[in-house]
Each structure stands twice: as C-alpha cells, then as structure tokens.
Amino acid sequence: MGTKLFEHKQTRGMASVKLSTITPCNRERLELSTAKIPARSVDNSLVGQANARIDNLFDCGIDLFDHQCVGHRSREQEEVGGTTTEPAGWRKNGTLGTVGTSKTITAFIPRGYRGEPSAQRGTHMDKRIRTGERFSRRRLLKVGAGAAAAGILAPYIARAAEPIRVGVLQPFSGGLEVLGMQGAQGAELAMLEANEAGGVLDGRMFEFIRADDKTDPKTAVERTTELLRRDNVTAIIGPVTSANRDAMMPTIQRSKSLLLYATDYEGGVCVPNVACYSALPEQWINPLVPYALENLGKSFYLIGSDYVWPQKMNAAFRTQAESAGGKIVGEEYSPWGAKDYAATLRKIESAGTEVVVTTLVGADAITFVKQFAAAGLNKKLKIVFLGFSENYLGGLSSEESEGIVTVSNFIETLDKPEAKEFVAKVKARYGDTAIASNTVDAHYTLTRLFIDGIKRANSVDPTAIMENMVGQPIMSGNGEVVLRPEDRHAVLNVLIAQVQDGKLAVKKDLGRIEGPNQCG
Fold first, then answer.
1. Which sign does the torsion angle of CA 79, 85, 88, 91 carry?
2. Which of 66-75, 265-274, 476-485, 492-501 has the weakest average pLDDT?
3. Tens-place pLDDT, residues 189-234
4. Are 465 and 260 spatial neighbours (Cβ–Cβ below 8 Å)?
5. Burial level of 21, CB count in 10 A (0-12/13-18/19+)?
6. pLDDT tops 50 at residue 269
7. 239 preceded by cis ω (within 30°)?
C-alpha cells in the first residue's frame, strides 16, 4: 500500500493541499489538515513523486499520540543553524516544520522501521519531544500543515533507493508473545546494523514490517498473504509454531519468496526457498537422553502442548530412552490455555516418575512449572524442559525454576568471546534489562546469513539469495555455524544447561552437532 504524503486539487488558480498519512499501527488514513495556497506554488512533479511509495513522513512520530506502536519509537530533535546530529540507530525521517526563525523540528525513526504493534502496548516507547518544549497534538498538526503549504516537505519527497522489505511474522499475541518479541528483536537487530553500515546493494536499506500471527494458523496464512501481496516483501522471518509454519508453506511455495525459520522444530521441511536455523530432534534429543539417564533418572513422564512439535520431540525422546534402557511411564498432551494441571501432577507422582520431560510452551509451561513446584514435586523429581530459555525465568521464582535442565544452542551466560559480544549488542540496543536468549541469537544469525546472501548475490532475487546463504560459515553467539546446501538446515553448536541461582549455567558443551539431511 502506497503512502500519499500530500495531494492537491486546483480550483480557479488555488490549490487545495491536504497533508495526510497512512498510520503504521493500523494502516488507517489519518488526515492531518488542509491548506489552500496559490496553484503556482505547487510543483506537480513533486506531487507525482509524493503519490509514489515513499517512507512515511511520520511513521510512529504522529502515531505515538494515538496508537503507541510498541517496540518502535520516534524522536523529534531541534535543529539549530542547519545542523542536527542523528541519534545512534536512528535516521532522519523528515522536517515537520519551523518554530520561530532558527529552529526546525526534525523527525527521527529507527533505521529500517515500519511495522505493526505487538500486544504489549507501551513497551519501548519513547515519547520525548526534544525541542525544549512539549508539542501538543494541535500544534504538531498545525506545524505539519504549514510545512506542506510552504513546500518544506519537498526535500523528503525525492525518492530514495527502493528499500528491501522484510516481513517479521511472529506471535505478538496468543500466548507466545514473549517468544515473538524475542524473535523480532533478533531479526531487526541484524537489519538495523546493516542499515547503519550503509545498507546493501549501493545503499538500499532494509524496511521491516511486523505482523502478528496471533499463534493461530489461519491468521498466519492471512498475514503471510498480506506481506507478500500488499507489502511485496522479499522474505518472511518466522513464525514460531510448526502448525503456523506448515499452514503458511503452500503460500510461500507459490510466491517463491523466502521463509527464514529460526525456531527448533521436529524436522521434515525440504523446500528450496525455506531456510531453517532450527535444532532438529537428533541435534537436541540424541545427546540429551544419555545425559539424563546418567545424571537425572531412568523413568520419564512426557507432557507437551497438543501440536506437532511436542509430539515429535516426545516420540524421539521415547525412542532414544527406551533403546538405552530408560522407561516411559506416561505421556499426555494438554490443550492451549490449560489452567489446572492437578490431575496430571497426581498421575506423575503415582507413576514412579523420576524425570518429567515437558514440551509445554509459552504461558502453559509457566503454569505447569508453578503448579509442579506448589505441589512440592520439585523437591522429589527432576524436570527436563525442552525449549526453555531465559525468557521463562522472569515468570518463575528462583525456587520454581531451580534445577530445570534444558538443551539449547545458546544461553546468555555462555563464557565465550562471541557470546559476550552478542549479549553486549542486545543490551546496547534494547536496554540493560533486555534478554539475549537462544531465540534472539537464532533470529539474529539467520537474518545475518540472509543479508550476507544478498551481498554475495548482488541481487534480491530469492533464488540467488538462498544459493548464496548456504555453505557460508558465520559466527553465531556460540561458535561458527553454517547452512548446509543440501537441505538449507543449520549445523549447530549445542549445550546442555541447568538453572542455578536464577540463571542458566552450562553443564556440558557438546560442540558441533550435525542433524540428518532433511532432503535425503
């Protein structure tokens, strides 16, 4: 959808100039104001360019008064004497107008931003107006109208190099919003860094468009179609659940665009335009089972959310455990949004369980672990939590999380130079309280592979990009990784970790593990 910066109608020598914008939060048209000026003052060539697709002048700058684009900010900065310093990570997005004779209000937005809000309104929203005074909405609109009438907007209508649009399709609601926000941060961090370095292909910038799949397959398909047809994205980064990914796959295949999937999954995807920076069961389960049998116990109760990934992961765990002399004493699946696990906890306690293996996800996993601890089972039994990361620690007390064992490709406390560098980047960008989890690292690394693929291909053709993404080693937050050419899956470095004193700590560094060829 194009954004019209202003439009005009000529009547008897006068031009009616309407300043308006498509708001990025809900894509509704917001008419700011209308002014009449002599027709000779309107440069028709500029009007034509304005009606073409250009950067939204206000992005979240105007929208922050009404919509709060979560995770995206706008700053207005005073320009005195014709000079303004761009804040780090921001780009100049237009001149809103003049104040007096010496001050110009200049809008700044994050480099590459264009997007939709998450469910967590208010997060990361910077509402400061850096002019030495607060601007009322009325005054801001008045300034905008004056700018349009005076032609101040003209320099920003000149069309820049067409941006490379990327859809960030994540669950910003529906129970997995924490994972969705983490995935978005990782992907966007990589694109922001690329923009700050000058972009790619002689200055083309990345424009990322957030879309919420609501942890729902039908919605995921709808958002995918919008990103491809309306926004003309080159690639989509996401989603989280296998159910949503599988629902999207036919649309992705027909469009021949790229899908960049960066969540651990059950395996089985062999599609030329899909890259999976994703741990397979063989990369996580196969090394985890011997560790569990040796250190935790030999009888296991399996409980997961009722969809494909938990079922396949538990099937792999059962196969490995039973072949090595372990015993599965129970297995069950819980519907989304379950609130009461009392009956399950009774079964676990009476079944002779030594280790509970959970593949519950999101808020359901938090609910289960809290009730498990409240029943006192955390004093008697061990928990192996697949998919666990620092994201979950904030929802659990130290006592509730203590002793949880997991397997991962990255943890925030990893004592390696590349890990420390990555954690520092995340916190520098998103604040000291930001979490640098496996989810962030996976999306960040896969997006960097995508960016490097564009550079090597010297093209935004999806086929050429993919050909140049594979077989090229890159440093992740935990060692060097690579996408295999034969199936476009990642060879990863794997860790077994355990919660100790409220933090994940490495128990065993398994090094590089290569899963089976998914196209074999």
1. positive
2. 66-75
3. 999 999 999 999 999 999 999 999 999 999 999 999 999 999 999 9
4. no
5. buried
6. yes
7. yes
Burial of 44 (0-12, 13-18, 19+ CB in 10 A): exposed
What is the C-alpha to C-alpha distance for residues 195 and 189, in angstroms, rounded to an integer? 10
d(CA 163, CA 199): 9
Note the maximum CA span of the chain. Answer: 91
> What is the chain's length?
520
In a 10 Å sphere around its CB, with 0-12 CB exposed, 13-18 middle and 19+ buried, how is residue 214 labelled?
Answer: buried
According to the model, what pLDDT value does residue 362 have? 87
For residue 69, what are its two tokens?
A: 């684009």
Element (H, E) at 6: strand 6-11
pLDDT of residue 160: 56
**Which residues of 306-381 form beta strands (DSSP E)?**
327-334, 355-359
- DSSP alpha helices (H): ranges in 104-176? 137-150
pLDDT in tens, 494-517: 999 999 999 999 999 999 999 999
Q: 382, 403 in Cβ contact below 8 A?
A: yes
CA gap 266, 75 in Å, rounded:
43
Of 392, 403, 398, which is closest to residue 368 (Cα–Cα)? 392
Judged by DSSP in three states, 202 sits in coil
User: What would the two tokens of residue 314 be?
Assistant: 């538990």
Q: Which residues contact 100 (CB under 8 A, 6 or more apart)?
A: none
Given strand 206-212, what is the order of strands in its sheet? 206-212, 164-170, 235-237, 258-261, 274-276
Q: Which amino acid is at 209?
A: I
> Can you tell me which residue has the tokens 């006592």?
399
On whether the CB atoms of residues 192 and 429 are closer than 8 A, the answer is yes
Structure letter (DSSP) for residue 377: G
Which residue type is seen at 384? V
Task: Indicate the burial class of 258 (C-beta count within 10 angstroms; 0-12, 13-18, 19 or more).
Answer: buried
User: Between the CA atoms of 494, 498, 503 and 506, what dihedral angle is there, to the nearest 10 degrees?
Assistant: -40
Give the C-alpha separation, 185 to 174, whole Å: 18
Strands 503-513, 474-476: parallel, antiparallel or unpaired by DSSP? unpaired
Please state, in angstroms and rounded to a whole number, the distance separating the CA atoms of residues 335 and 143.
Answer: 53
